[in-house]
Amino acid sequence: MTRPTIAFEQRYDLHIGGERTGPSGGDYSPTYDPASGEPFAEVAVGTDDDVDRAVAAARAAFESWRDTDPGERGRLVHRVGELVAERAAELAAIESKDQGKPLSQARSDVDGARRYFEYFAGAADKLEGRSVPIGPQQVDFTVREPYGVSAQITPWNFPGNLFARGVAPALVAGNAVVVKPAPQTSLTTLRLAELCSEAGLPDGVVNVVTGPGDPTGEALVSHPGVDTITFTGSVPTGRRIMKRAAETVTPVTLELGGKNPALVFPDADLDTAADAIAAGIFTNAGQVCSAVDRLLVHEAVHDELVDRVVGIAEGYEIGPGWDDPDLGPLASREHRDRVLEYVADGQAEGATLHTGGSALDRPGYFVEPTVFTGVQNDMRIAREEIFGPVLSVIAFGDEAEAPTRPIMG
Ligand code: NAD
After folding, report:
1. Which of 16, 107, 161, 333 is most buried, most CB within 10 Å of its CB?
2. What is the pLDDT at residue 404?
3. 369: Cβ contacts below 8 Å, ≥ 6 apart
4. Is the distance from the beta carbon of residue 240 to the nearest atom of ligand 1 less than 6 Å?
């Protein structure tokens, strides 16, 4: 893949009521290139007032959007999908630069975003209610209605793809949205909001307020004008949002973290298993909620399988996302440090570092693909989501010894 040549703006504003608008507090914060550690643009820090404006814009737009013919809502959302396909190279380049992932992985995420718009577009005129049989001479039926203003909070690992996953269904059902992306990776979201406008979605139906979890995210999830909250992110933040939402009795949809095991028994095809496990833990540098970050393997094939996975990991080309390597950097300095802390913990608790474990001696937030063996179920690296390129291998001799239940932090 050739290196992209897109130009970034110096400053990115909020997207409210179909327009770019500066933050009321006048503050911007840098967004960093994870491959170099250098800031390359500034992003608006949304205030309570900005959240208020965005919710008001969404509320105003909702009044007519809810009454728009469902077929027309579907057509417009489908058009967003077409624009995503047309601009796939640009969107992937933005996401790869801002988030760090290899370009071809970003392309695949953008393709997934297109599919969300297309898939949900088709549902717009099929959101049927039910006819309830309650006896003769009576008619009882249910009708599906939009909530109103949907607040959408997204994480930094798949910003574009998760925008599409949350926004597309909300729109086709007749809701207006206010999206708050993660501050580390806001640029794909802002570009997608522009494509929503370009597709013909009425002003105010899609709004984006950038900024950190606190105060911007807090202001959004506790805003009385928000009718439903969709959140994807960590378990602690999900818990906090649920508590907040309880105060205003606002329904929430949460997609949280994971600690997913791969289970390998002696009759497995070890080459296929090794490929799947390496892809499962090292794609997007392990920053995937469904990453395979525990490998539970029968002791009869433990050494053979570990050798294969380690061989794949040690053969990886590591570099900036725009060069489309096998493995890119982690998304932020803080996150790199957190992953390295887990590695240190694993060693301190007695696990064997089979390969990797260090930051690369170069600018940017690179961590080597890492494999721990000799991991015990009570170790932190076996229990908590690391969200990095770190595989914890746990050997078992009997199926009953291999606990597969995810353990949430
Ligand atoms: P995070 O919880 O720190 O942040 C997610 C989002 O919430 C960000 O936009 C952040 O700014 C915002 N936020 C933080 N505090 C907030 C608050 N008090 N009020 C409102 N918003 C707040 O998570 P992260 O570190 O960005 O993402 C990684 C996590 O997301 C991992 O645990 C991963 O497993 C999970 N994830 C889950 C899925 C899924 O589909 N289940 C997909 C991707 C990521």
Report:
1. 16
2. 57
3. 281, 282, 313, 314, 316, 318, 327, 355, 356, 389
4. yes
